[in-house]
Fold this sequence. Notes:
Layout: H1 2-5, H2 9-17, H3 44-57, E1 58-61, E2 68-74, H4 78-91, E3 97-100, E4 104-110, H5 114-117, H6 135-143, H7 145-156, E5 162-167, E6 172-177, H8 186-190, H9 192-199
Antiparallel strand pairs: 1-2, 2-4, 3-4, 5-6
Amino acid sequence: MARTLSLPHTTVWHWCVDRPERAVLGSAIRCFRCRPGLKSPTDPAAYAYLLGLYLGDGHLVTTDRVPVLRVYCADTWPNLIEACDAAMRAVLANKVQRIQKRGCVAVQSTARHWPCLFPQHGPGKKHQRPIVLADWQREILTAHPGHFLRGLFHSDGCRFANRVTVRASSTSTRATCSPTNPPTSWASVNGPSTCSASCGR
Length: 201
């Protein structure tokens, strides 16, 4: 080859031996599951929150040329749309799209490495198949349980004042159970028999 190209033999030898490492481009730069030097997300709290959103009202499309992570957010909660957008960018996304639907906004991002971060992805509906956390996910959620629960409630949960009737021996009163006024125990609200039936104890 050196004689054919009229080049020094050492030049051709360096071409064959001194090969540079493959360039890491796109989402691969931030994928801590693929980069040897990264052991956790750059923002673990944002990942815990995004995982909650994904398990609630999100899904991952892998049939397209590039995987798409999509989370549906109601129009009535604009702060949720902003929080979802920010979480995607903090975890992996370089670009986030917002597609207006009827009554909601689809917040989505395309990246080849989204499936690496959401191993719960699979065929069928999430509520019809087992959802098992990977060991590395458990470590993140153990450190940031509040952010994970926040994502679950924001995507597919609700918070309300639970008005119940507490029956005593001869009187009946109404009480409001809320974070500032919790019931003293489950049995005091629903009775021991209901607690046993619900808890199995």
